[in-house]
Amino acid sequence: MTLLIGLDGEMSDSELDKGAVLIQIGVCDDYGNTFESLIGHDAGWYKTEQASAVHKIPDEDILAAERADVVDRRLYRWLEDRLTEARIRGDHAVLRPFVPVGLNVGGFDMPFVRKFLPESSSLISRRSLDINALCFAFEDAQVTYHGERLTFSKWKEVAKDNAEELLGHSNWHDALYDARAALEAYNFLTGAFRSIDYSPSY
Predict the structure, then answer these.
(1) Rounded to whole angstroms, how far apart are CA atoms 95 and 139?
(2) Cα end-to-end distance, the chain, whole Å
(3) The pLDDT value given to residue 147
(4) Distant-in-sequence, close-in-space partners of 95: CB < 8 Å, separation ≥ 6
(5) CA atoms of 123 and 106, how far apart (whole Å)
(6) 10-residue block means of pLDDT along the chain (202 residues)?
(7) DSSP states of the chain as a string?
(8) What is the pLDDT of residue 118?
(9) What pLDDT does 196 receive?
């Protein structure tokens, strides 16, 4: 049994190979459990003004935050607690039982998570459920929604709007908010695909 988790990271820049670092992690499940933490770094970490303008996390907060190894241990324990709950429910968890859900979680977030939170990563699958990939697939398959054939961008917009409405507010580029929104967006998209309104045309 695999377990879905919304997962999002905020980074000091998009390019891991240039020295960008993970500065915030947010994780949630479908049962209302959440984990969020800033990740601290010593002065001199690689960052760009463009990324700073997006995440808006002050440098002094990053300097003061718990370092990655401490956050990694806390997240690992949080994931273990979710496994315990799954076993109580009768779910039989497998190796790397948690499948991350996010906008581009496999290609973007998870490389940072694997580098900075390696212990936690041992419980997270290398498979992922990417919202962007679903939206591309829906466009390619010409799936309709309420009778309208949507583009990739429109599917993404509708999914994000639905998530925002369910969450009751907007706080994009906060890692926990984005993680929760991703899980809601995934649930919406899979629900739309299963609905009677699904009508592919090739």
Answers:
(1) 33
(2) 34
(3) 86
(4) none
(5) 15
(6) 92 96 97 97 96 96 98 98 89 81 96 98 95 94 89 96 95 97 95 57 46
(7) --EEEEEEEEES-S-GGGTB-EEEEEEE-TTS-EEEEE-B--TT-B--HHHHHHH---HHHHHHSPBHHHHHHHHHHHHHHHHHHHHHHT----SS-EEEEESSIIIIIHHHHHHH-HHHHTTB-S--EEHHHHHHHHHHTT-EETTEEPPHHHHHHHHHHHHHHHHTS--TT-HHHHHHHHHHHHHHHHHHHHSTT-----
(8) 98
(9) 40
Whose CA is closest to 129, among 83, 76, 182? 182
User: In terms of DSSP bridges, do strands 22-28 and 34-38 run parallel, antiparallel, or are they unpaired?
Assistant: antiparallel
**Residues 7 and 26 sit within 8 Å (Cβ to Cβ):** yes
User: Residues with Cβ < 8 Å from 202, sequence gap 6 or more?
Assistant: 141, 142
Say if CB 14 and CB 60 are below 8 A apart. Answer: no
Structural domains in the chain plus CATH codes:
3-194 (3.30.420.10)
Residue 90's pLDDT is 84
